[in-house]
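Handout for the seminar on molecular recognition.
Each group receives one record of this type.
Step one: identify the two inputs.
Step two: read the structure output and locate the region that could contact NAP.
Step three: write two sentences on what you found, then compare them with the reference statements printed after the record.
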Amino acid sequence: MDTITIGGDLTVHRLGFGAMRLTGPGRDRADGQKILRRALELGIDFVDTADSYDLGDNETLIGDTVGAHEPVVIATKGGHVNLGRRWIPLGRPEYLRQQALLSRKRLRRDRIDLYQLHRVDPAVPLSDQVGALKQLQDDGVVRHVGLSQVTVEQIEEARRITPIVSVQNRYNLHERQDDEVVDHCTRHGIAYIPWAPLAKGVHSREALSWLLARSPVIVPIPGTSRLDHLEENCTL
Ligand SMILES: NC(=O)c1ccc[n+]([C@@H]2O[C@H](COP(=O)([O-])OP(=O)(O)OC[C@H]3O[C@@H](n4cnc5c(N)ncnc54)[C@H](OP(=O)(O)O)[C@@H]3O)[C@@H](O)[C@H]2O)c1
């Protein structure tokens, strides 16, 4: 498996793991931990989560499972409030700061490797939202900054404030409306992390091979709650 170096110093394999499905109603915590440990055994060293996944429990599970000094890059996200059936962007700087501090505590890391703005809040200037993440970087809470569900124009506006090392948008074999953003990230060496890489289970792992071939900056993060699916996804 190829590697990619994100932000100049985070070298990871190009197949990551989306942890979202490890926790939640009906999920067994021990099973979630077992799947995550197996993912690491299989060579996965990039794990994606968010403060809003199971209201923090997803990060807690990761923090309880992955040692603070294990060579695993953990990327988390903040700024998207989980109201059950409804999610709303919330990008007020003080909220983003609080959420990043809570994420760091749950993940049990001295510093968050990659902190991604989960959604742009249209009610708050983008410069204020990215400015809050830059302040977290300056304060040593966050190593690198990324964005999620953004346009080329938003990426460029954010890059004028601080380096943007990753973009996490919805993209897969049949949902290619983001081609322009993929090409932009490729040109600028920004890691592109497609979420729903398997179109939430519609596609098979061949879709992962297609993504890996699509651009050298693509790092898919397929999610699964099953050991057999995990092992299948890792045999690319
Ligand atoms: N930035 C954002 O806004 C955003 C939004 C959503 C998700 N994400 C991130 O993206 C990650 C992936 O997204 P996702 O989980 O929604 O979508 P996905 O990875 O496209 O699909 C996951 C679905 O595919 C199934 N699956 C996985 N491997 C399979 C296999 N080998 N054979 C058959 N089915 C398989 C899983 O079911 P089983 O559990 O039964 O295997 C699950 O239902 C999440 O974990 C999260 O970290 C980010």
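Reference statements: The longest helix spans residues 93-107. The two ends are 8 Å apart (CA to CA).
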